[in-house]
Amino acid sequence: MQEFRVSTERRPPFTVIHVCGELDIATEPRLREEVQAALAHPTPRLLFDLTRLDFVDSTGLQIIFDTYVELGRGDRVAVCGLSPRVKKVFDALGLTAEMAVYGTAAEVMASLGTDPW
To answer: CB atoms < 10 A from the CB of 26, how many?
Structure first.
């Protein structure tokens, strides 16, 4: 397993939040800080890039879902890069049917008609 890391970058129109390692009750405060900073941006749009996420528990999912709800349950939050293990959790909770979920960040941008990275 990888050490937990979270970082952000601006890729208009999104702030991309990269999450790596295990997202659980011990690491969720670090993700919450990054999300709160991103939400301070005028007209925030967030992309959670979970390509390098090995594990997620309910506390980690709660942050992502709360952000989705806070931003109006529309296209202002997207998720990409779900491993089969993480996708299984998203599927079980109905999140893949509720939220915009993509295979890669490039697919997200292409869906918006923006050049892939």
So the answer is: 11
Tally of domains in the chain:
1
Residues near 97 by beta carbon (within 8 Å), at least 6 away in sequence: none
Domain that holds residue 35: 5-111
pTM: 0.92
Structure confidence by residue, pLDDT tens digits, 62-95: 999 999 999 999 889 999 999 999 999 999 999 9
Q: What is the DSSP letter of 57?
A: -
Whole-number Å distance between alpha carbons of 20 and 52:
5
Tokens of 94: 């109905």
Sign of CA dihedral 43, 38, 81, 117: positive
Give Cβ neighbours of residue 66 (< 8 Å, ≥ 6 apart).
Answer: none
